[in-house]
Amino acid sequence: MFVLVNLKAYPCDPVEVATAAADVADDSGVRVAVAPQAAHIDAVSETGVETWAQHVSPNEHGSHTGSTLAEAVADAGAEGTLLNHSENRLKLADIDASLDAAERADLETIVCANNPAQIGAAAALGPDAVAVEPPELIGTGTPVSSADPDIVTAAVDAAARVDGDVDVLCGAGISTGDDLVAASDLGSTGVLLASGVAKADDPRAALEDLVEPLR
Amino acid sequence: MFVLVNLKAYPCDPVEVATAAADVADDSGVRVAVAPQAAHIDAVSETGVETWAQHVSPNEHGSHTGSTLAEAVADAGAEGTLLNHSENRLKLADIDASLDAAERADLETIVCANNPAQIGAAAALGPDAVAVEPPELIGTGTPVSSADPDIVTAAVDAAARVDGDVDVLCGAGISTGDDLVAASDLGSTGVLLASGVAKADDPRAALEDLVEPLR
Amino acid sequence: MFVLVNLKAYPCDPVEVATAAADVADDSGVRVAVAPQAAHIDAVSETGVETWAQHVSPNEHGSHTGSTLAEAVADAGAEGTLLNHSENRLKLADIDASLDAAERADLETIVCANNPAQIGAAAALGPDAVAVEPPELIGTGTPVSSADPDIVTAAVDAAARVDGDVDVLCGAGISTGDDLVAASDLGSTGVLLASGVAKADDPRAALEDLVEPLR
Amino acid sequence: MFVLVNLKAYPCDPVEVATAAADVADDSGVRVAVAPQAAHIDAVSETGVETWAQHVSPNEHGSHTGSTLAEAVADAGAEGTLLNHSENRLKLADIDASLDAAERADLETIVCANNPAQIGAAAALGPDAVAVEPPELIGTGTPVSSADPDIVTAAVDAAARVDGDVDVLCGAGISTGDDLVAASDLGSTGVLLASGVAKADDPRAALEDLVEPLR
Fold first, then answer.
1. What is the pLDDT of residue D139?
2. Cβ-based burial of D81 (10 A; exposed 0-12, middle 13-18, buried ≥19)
3. CB-based contacts of D173: which residues, under 8 Å, 6+ apart?
4. Cα-flanking dihedrals φ and ψ of residue D151, to 5°?
5. Separation CA A39–CA D128 (nearest Å)
6. Which one from B87, B103, B133, B212 is the annotated catalytic residue?
7. Which CDD domains does the protein's record reference (chains A, B, C, D) (predicted)?
């Protein structure tokens, strides 16, 4: 299982979370990555943790003020990028162009989507993975794997119909090791989580609990 | 073949074009529809021509100022709607929600896209049809069917892989009857056209020429 | 006082509300206008009521699919347009260009804004009027004139500092004649209202109550 | 005069340009700052140069994936931020909220705008400075100060009418010391420039030439 911790714009210390994530990944053997603010990628990747961007822009090098250039986040240490998170929905044409940008910069890609139909659409664009995130569950602490398991299996089916090679992640309400196991049982190969770790009093303990069943 | 004339924001007389389109459809037996500005749908549909919206918003009834409610365009006489035209690119989640809105209002749907990958994504959302429009050919008078026939066959293949029932239209640079025949030969079941008719000195003559090979 | 009834995307009968508004305007001598969906402008203006658009796009005639062309809404009978409603926030550059578009089409303009600073900014662009609408009060039935009278006087001041000729309207939570009088006492020359009329069981009675204190 | 070098998404080495800018600022006594990609702020500010962000998002701390949090860019070393650059036009309400975000993070602010009317609107929102950038001159090498000097003086007047304390910068086509002097003569207190330095074969020489008349 792949565990991607999205720090969003939370008021956490990104280096503290990253250091904990790097240690937990080392100790457990579970793949754990952290997606900080673009301006924190440099500092986060210095901890040795696998670092992801939360977004990259669809543009190439050129006259694009305020964009998030894929090459720049890669240069700062990112190895992958989320795209089309429910808090940052993109135009279909821009998801496609951002995937091209990520590929040029050698970034792995996860495209998020709301429901199985959109998961099928996202998979048709050829990302490395897709993540199903029913918007109504984000930030609730209610894991999609128990609140709406059918949506996960339907997402896995929709993705497989379009592209047999694409991974499917679960992306809403995940916070415990049991949620992780449930997500795996439904056919997903990873999870996106955010507040469960980033807003925890003790992010290290939260991550340790999370990966416990996978050790 | 289905011929959809998109009037965009052109300074043409929408009722004159609509009347010509209605007559040409009657005389030739070819299905011809006209997509005017939302504010002209009422007047255009009064001519008896099949009338389409250029866009509908993803929202339902409610507090949405400045939206284009699917139910309102249907009420004014529209029978279908374009979505995600290259001049009006939408978020993936909004294409999905606009398709739901169109279905509630009993509108037929065509989702436009730039290239075969996006055509596959659009088809995965379940519209009635998709239209492939390489942006670089729009408004050029160079038909996609001759400038880049491979993109049309690739789009037909991409759509079929995802949804065997979805129609594929050609949508850029079409202006003559020969273009229409070429589009049909490549596997498409219709065309979107705009300036070739809407900006013609004699829109009726342009439409008659267009459908001539289909009579 | 100017009373503008914004029908948004409500499931009301726009012609019924428009007919009531036309009658109430005639009987009371109060200026009352109705802003329906673009696709309903034609039918609404046929009732004789002063008709407004809820929005116009910043573009001129040309290749702009899915836009709301100022000339098209004027052609269908609109005499004015709202811009930048809190449910349809626009880019600063687009408010400016939409004002140009409205002027070309001879449409009166009201630019909405959240707070006095934005009211000053909107006034600097030279519209006929601005409307202050604290987002947290929209649709609440709590009139801005009583919930936050200071914001209205601050808006009137901010507008006057930038452009002495611009009118200031109150635009959130207005539903009764008393609200109208309070808005007038605070220096505004009109009100935007929506659900108070459009969702009333008897829109005519709601309008009559509203204008009663102005007769 | 304040010289702000916007690196946009250019394929330059941001640290090389930053080092040159820091040296030129030291040698000449002219205030020179560099605005890199968000992911490069950390490395650029390490050179000791005054570092700016190209943009910050309107949001506060919280659940906002893919945003550019003002606190994060400040944390990485930024001392100011551009907003509403013509390549990144913002909603009026978002310029206002991004100014609030910048203030919370103690960032200096420059709001860009197309023309004198929009400059007045931008000034009404209370930034530290505004920058006038006619879009048609950006990247041309034709300085606004010679191509259209009236637009600069009109911008200075428009800003002064609304807020006597706001600085006005010139922001399009500036590349030489003469352009800088011309901009100063028209009443501006700084310049934005980009390709003239970032795409120069020798950025240090370009900066030295630029500040030469100010020594």
1. 67
2. buried
3. D137, D138, D139, D140, D141, D142, D143, D144, D147, D179
4. -65, -30
5. 23
6. B133
7. TIM
pLDDT of residue A163: 81
Between CA A36 and CA B1 the distance in angstroms is 51
Cβ atoms of residues B37 and C68 within 8 Å: yes
Strand partners of residue B34? B5, B51
How many angstroms separate the CA atoms of A188 and A132, rounded? 10
CB atoms within 10 A of CB C60: 16
Structure tokens at D156: 């200075």
CB A62 within 8 Å of CB D8: yes
Q: Which domains does chain C have, with CATH numbers?
A: 2-214 (3.20.20.70)
Which residue would you say has higher pLDDT here, D173 or A150? A150
As given in the structure block, the two tokens for residue C79 are: 């005499």
CB atoms within 10 A of CB C147: 14
Q: How far is CA C129 from CA A94, C170, D21, in A?
A: 37, 11, 46
Instruction: Tell me how far apart the alpha carbons of residues A19 and A17 are, in angstroms, rounded to a whole number.
Output: 6
Percentage of chain C lying above the pLDDT 90 cut: 79
Cα within 13 Å of Cα(D73), Cβ side = 35
Task: Tell whether residue C177 is among the known ligand binding residues.
Answer: no
Grouping H, G, I as helix, E, B as strand and the rest as coil, residue C209 is helix
Among B92, B114, B115, the strongest candidate for a mutation testing the A interface, having the largest count of A CBs within 10 A, is B92
The H-assigned helical ranges of B57-168 are 70-75, 92-104, 116-124, 144-147, 149-162
Question: In the beta sheet, which residues pair with residue D192?
Answer: D4
Helices A116-124 and B92-104: crossing angle in degrees, nearest 10, is 130
Q: Per the annotation, does A88 bind a ligand?
A: no
Local confidence band at B142 (pLDDT 50, 70, 90 cut-offs): confident
Smallest CA–CA distance, residue D159 to chain C, in Å, is 10
- Please list every residue in chain A whose beta carbon sits closer than 8 Å to the beta carbon of residue D36: 72
Report the predicted TM-score, pTM, of the whole model to 2 decimal places: 0.96
pLDDT higher than threshold 90 for residue D142 = no
Q: What is the CA radius of gyration of chain A?
A: 16
Q: What is the dihedral of CA C177, C181, C184, C189, to 10 degrees?
A: 30
Q: Which two tokens stand for residue A48?
A: 């040795």
| pLDDT at position D143 | 77
* Residue with tokens 């009857």, as numbered in its chain: B177
Res. B139: pLDDT tops 70? no
CA distance A116 to B55: 24
Write out chain A in H/E/C secondary structure: CEEEEECCECCCCHHHHHHHHHHHHHHHCCEEEEECCHHHHHHHHCCCCEEEECCCCCCCCECCCCCCCHHHHHHCCCCEEEECCCCCCCEHHHHHHHHHHHHHCCCEEEEEECCHHHHHHHHHCCCCEEEECCHHHCCCCCCHHHHCHHHHHHHHHHHHHHCCCCEEEECCCCCCHHHHHHHHHCCCCEEEECHHHHCCCCHHHHHHHHHHHHC
Tell me the shortest Cα–Cα distance from A70 to chain D, in angstroms. 10
Interatomic CA distance for residues A126 and C173, integer angstroms: 48
Residue C32 pairs with which residues in a beta bridge?
C3
Cα gap A34→A49, rounded to integer Å: 7
Instruction: Give the whole-angstrom CA distance, residue D109 versus residue D119.
Output: 14
Neighbours of chain C (3+ CB pairs under 8 A): B, D
Answer for the pair A159, A193: CB distance below 8 angstroms, yes or no: no
Whether the CB-CB separation of D88 and C90 falls below 8 Å is answered with: no
Using an 8 Å CB-CB cutoff, list chain C residues near D122. 92, 121
Q: What is the pLDDT of residues D14-29, one digit of tens each?
A: 999 999 999 999 999 9
Instruction: Encode C97-120: b = buried (16+ Cβ within 10 Å), e = exposed.
Output: bbbebbeebebbbbbbbbbbbbbb
